[in-house]
Every structure is written in C-alpha cells, then in structure tokens.
From TrEMBL:
The lineage of its organism: Bacteria, Pseudomonadati, Pseudomonadota, Alphaproteobacteria, Hyphomicrobiales. The modification 4-aspartylphosphate is found at D56. It comes from Rhizobium mongolense USDA 1844. This is Two component transcriptional regulator, LuxR family. Residues 136-201 form the HTH luxR-type domain. CDD domains: LuxR_C_like. PANTHER family: DNA-BINDING TRANSCRIPTIONAL ACTIVATOR DEVR_DOSR.
Amino acid sequence: MATDDQIAFIVDDDERMREALSELLASHGMRAIAFGSAGDYVSADKPDVPACLILDVELPDINGLDLQRQIAAGEHPPIVFITGHGDIPSSVRAIKHGAVDFLTKPFSDSDLMAAIDAAIAQDREKRSERADVGALRQRYLDLTPREREVLPLVVSGLLNKQAAAELGISEVTLEIHRRNVMHKMAAASLADLVRIAERLEIPITHSRRAGGSGA
C-alpha cells in the first residue's frame, strides 16, 4: 500500500511510460502522480510532502531541461531526468543545475528507485533546513528593534564597549540587550549566535577594532 508521507511526480508524454512508472512506484509502496506535460505539472496542486520529480527531457510543450531552469528559483522537488535520447551535454547541464540523476531509457528499476530514494532523502533534508531557518527567522522577528541592532554588532566581534559606543548607549544597557538576544535566539554561546546569524544571512557591516576593553 502506498503511503502519503512521500510522493513522486512523473512528467512524461508517453502514457505507457507513465503507467509503468506509476506501477513500479506503487509496488515499492510509493504514491505517484503522473502528468503528460510540463504545463499540467506546473499548474497542478501538489501535496506538501517530501517528493521527487521524474522528468522526461522531451515533452510536448517544453524541454525538460528548460523546465528545470524555469523552476530553479522556487522550491521544487529534486529532479531525476529520464530520456530516450540522452547525450553528454544534456546530462552535464542537468546535473550541473542540481538534478539528482540523468537516466537513459531503458534503465533498470533498481537504478531508478535508487535515484528516487536519493532525491526524496535530499528533499527531506531541504525541508528540515527550511523549517529550522523558518523557526530562527521567527525568533529574529521577536527581537525588539534595538536588539536587532545589537545582534550584528555582537556577532561581528565588537567588544561591548565598542558596540555600546556604536549605538550611543551604556555598556550596561548593551549587555542587557546582548543577554536578551542570546536568550530569544536560543543561542548557547557566541559561536552559536554567529552560526545563527550566518544561516539567517544577517549582514555584518562592522569588524572588531583594536583598543578598549569590554566583557
């Protein structure tokens, strides 16, 4: 029985291939949704679960490689290309732009399933990362405006005295804001806060300067 915790999207204009792939996936307990064109796939509502996209290169409305390029900027499942007319430049282009595999028909069931498993594992990891970053971003939004000013100064390595001077506040006030930032961001150490700032891509516009003392 197919489970709903993962899915494979199939985009191939050959109905027999779509049916064969759907049956293969069903035999491995995986749900599949098949489309005959790129347009049908793009316009369809898709379950929000770990997934992969099994994509034929030659489609009636657009080349699969062009579809890969068009959807690259958004969140889309990792792609496993299948084609009856494989060539080295196409495979290189596909892999260079993030495809998990590029299989030439006829391919073995085991090769396809291995590629699908790798693609879904990759999607699970990406989804976990997005969820983690989303939680961090919400913590950042919970900071006060002043705390958001303090955070980049702290992670840049400025001493408390230097950061306080930058903001025109006392060292004591700076230290209070710093503790609040650490607490709200759930950072166990300064190094942890630096990693969080990097994941959130918070711009660091200052660098530690010599002179002065601080905590």
